[in-house]
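Dear support,

We are seeing what looks like truncated structure output for some complexes. This example has two components. We would appreciate it if you could run it in full and send us the complete token output so we can diff it against ours.
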Amino acid sequence: MLARTLPPPDHSATLARLRARLAQLDHTAKGRAALPLAPEINHHLPWGGLPLAGLHELLSDAPGHATGFAALLLARAQARLARRAALWIAAEPDAYLPGLAGLGLDATRLFLLRAPRPRDALWAAEEALRSPATAAVLLLGARALDMTAARRLQLAAEAGGGIALLLREEASTAGPTAALTRWRIAPRAVAATPHHLGPPAWEVSLLRARGGQPGTWLLEWDAATGQITTQAATPTAERRRA
Amino acid sequence: MAGRRCARTPALPLPLPERRLRPTAPTPASPEPPRGHRRFLVLHGPGIGEMAAWALRFSPLVGRRGPDALLIETTGLPEPEPALLTRVLAAFDRAGRPATGLLGAAPAALAALLRAGHPPSVLAPGEEAAALPHLPVSALALPPETIQALHRLGLRDLATLEAQPRAPLARRFGGALMVELAALRGAMAPFTPIRPPSRHVVARDFLEPLLTAAALAHALRLLVAELCEGLKDTGEGARGLRLTAFRGDGSWQALGQGLGQASRDPVHIERLLARRIEELRPEFGFERMMLAAPLTERLEAAQSALSAEGAPEEALPQLLDRLGQRLEVWRAVPHASHWPEHAQRRASPFAPAAPFSPAPRPLRLLRRPVPLEAVALLPDAPPSLLRHNGRAERVVSAEGPERLTPEWWQSGRQAPPRDYYRVQLASGARWWVCRRGEPGEPNARWFLHGYLF
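Here is the complete output from our reference environment:
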């Protein structure tokens, strides 16, 4: 009887309030700083770019292109978080700075760590991510990361504010992850002639993003401007048209 | 403080505060020797020379006098001298190296008295001077032939020896006798400590020997806090630390720990040392622990309590210290060489950094190049097919060759020249491959040397 006299409940206001509350609870909400990628990807991702203070998984079986993509992110994190350093953790770090310098990576703020045992590598990554001195940590070659380890890295990154990149040398993987995003990086030849390699290009697939949609883009790196550009005809668009 | 303020107040007559400031009469009956005189403890005992490092637990200044004697400087130690002597001799007894000792002013005289069979005791300056004249010449630290010659001359004790005119003695027996005579009277005390003493040392004794990791961690926290206070007072930061833990049975264990940047942050130092606790082997327990900062640097005062870990400038060396304890950490620095594997060198993370100039080089350079089988249309043409691990990879495009020849000014290396190609495979992957040897040579080999982008 009483209910009939009350005004109908305002669902939209309740929903908006709940959403705001959830956003407050989520440490990786939009207010966080993010690294810019290509404009289309920035627009697609819920954070307006690749968020700092988070763990991101990169899957690839082409070491060169995957390293290139990761190094670009390291360089952007270094530029974004001035005075902070980047760490390269691997069982046998084979970073070659004469080549990496071309991607804008600052060698004076890059440290290499040799961690033959995966346990040590995870410890070092977590320790580094918790520190306010780290802009980015690149962890190479971790075969399988269980949920606990990934969650720990994610929390450490949130505490320290740096970006954690996990580069796994396999093209496909199953299973859940605690990372914010999971990407697959495949090399693509763009405008290659028999005597000219052409600009570096990747096909980058966003397999998973917390609070976002998957997608695929064909990216090209312009060495002159240092920008990542999206190719006009992205594979996703073609597939939709077909 | 109050006295000084009084002295500056013009209303007060000058003599009054001065009288008030004048110290009261010195408290008498202190067994301490008058200030300004150095005091030494000389220990004799078979084989105690090798216990020198252990004897650092009694005093920071310990020297060896041959295999069977030790010299410990006790000037300024807070303990009363008789108690110190008893404690030191008891500790040597327990350590299984019984020793006898004399505490006095002139190490040479003390050693001579010990050789003459003086019982262990503390000698006041007057007692020392009174005991010396009766000292037999054979107890002096002189070569046997000198002692024999002195005996032949009828000089059997120190009193008769000292009564002789010095010039003929010096002409007859040389400088060694003169040096010994001067040393006996305390005119010189040549003394080389086994380790230069640190300005910053803290130590703690424990009634119950420490056995557990928790107890060691607690002791460490106390030591670190005390050391950091001392460092703060002098405005220094530690670059190197040495932790020495003494067991009850006369053995000890020492740990060294370096710091990348001078620090007197107790939290950081404790975190570094706490990781080393597992290396300590207490066996029957540590009864004394000593923490020293042998290497210090000037460190300006900083506001320490603003944030938990401070700015990146401070946090980075601390992070590198922690990581470097467990893993190999380095930074890459450029080196003037065109040979690819030499163009980048490892340097300490705290070494000065230098930027690299970009070059068309791979992002990752394989430490061990992977051998490849290559098919080329012509001997000096770029490869058109590469076989790697039994898989054939078709080459879509190739840039090169870039010929690198070994550096002739580097002696001892006669490596064949290399022709590098930047190739793109059908899969899109880019490799940096090289042919080792002249094209067309039968022993020319192909390698994958790095991954390009």
